[in-house]
Amino acid sequence: MTDNSRKPIRKAVFPVAGMGTRFLPATKAVPKEMLPIVDRPLIQYAVDEARAAGIEQMIFVTGRGKGAIEDHFDIGFELETTMKERGKDVSILDGTRLSPGNCAYVRQQEPLGLGHAVWCARDIVGDEPFAVMLPDELMWGEPGCLKQMVDAYEKVGGNLISVLEVPRESVSSYGVIAPGKVDGALTEVTGLVEKPKVADAPSNKIVSGRYILQPQVMHTLQDQEKGAGGEIQLTDAMAKMIGNQPFHAVTFDGRRFDCGSKTGFVEATLAIALEREDMGEDVRAIATRLLG
Ligand code: G1P
Fold it and tell me: What number does the ligand 1 atom closest to the CA of 137 have?
C-alpha cells in the first residue's frame, strides 16, 4: 500500500451531470440538484455535509444545462448588493459562497456512468485520497455521514463506503457489499457487486452514496470497462481494490432519504420541515389535518 492511505481527505467529488428524467417536467430547465428540500437546494445539503467533514475543495462534475449550480455557489453580487442597500440580512447566503480556491467544475461530456463521472475529475483530484458524494442521497444526522466516515478513516485508512440495510427485494437498484468481519459501525468489505439480481446479492447492505477512495481507483477507471447497464461503474473499479488495500463499510448513524425518487423527496421534505424550529409546529398541524 502507498503512503497515501491515511492522507487527510481534502477534496470531494460531486457527480451532478445526470439528466434527472425522473423529475420531469420540473428538471427540464432546472438541474435536479437545485430542487429545494424546504428552502435549500439538494446539492447544498451535500456541500454542507462535506464542509462539516473538513473538505476544502468541492469538485462538481457537471454537464450541459447545469449552470445554475455554478451560479448558486458563486457570490450573488447584484442580489447581495441590493439586499444590503435595503438593509436586509444576507447571512442566509453564508453557506452558498465557494471561493474559486474551494471549488472546481469539470464536465462529463457523455453520460457513460458514475465511474466515468468520477474519472472526469482525475486531474483535479490528483494523487491523494478523496471523497465522492451523491447528492441524491440525503444523509441526515449529526455528526454528518461523511464526518462519521472520516473519523473511521483516521483509524483504518484505505477505502470506505457508507452502507445501509434495505429489504432484500430492493437490492437490485444499488451497489451491494459482501460483508466480512463486523466491528461496531465498521464492516470489512470482501466483495462488491453493482445492481445484482436478488438471488445473487451477497447481502442486503447497499452502498448509499458516500465514498472515501484512494487515488488508485482512477487508474482502474482509466480502462473504461463497462459493467451493469452498459455503464462504467464506480463499484466495479472499487471491487478491484479489495484485497490490495483496506476496504471498509460504515453504517451511518442517522437517517437517509433517497431523493432520487419522488416519494423519497417528499419524505425528506416532510421530515426536515417537521424538525425545523421556524415551522415544525405549523407543519405538524398541517400534516395531522391532512391525514385526519
Ligand atoms: C449509484 C451507484 C450504486 C449506489 C447508488 C446509491 O447507482 O452506482 O452503487 O448504491 O448510486 O444511490 P445509481 O443510483 O446511479 O443507479
Answer: 12
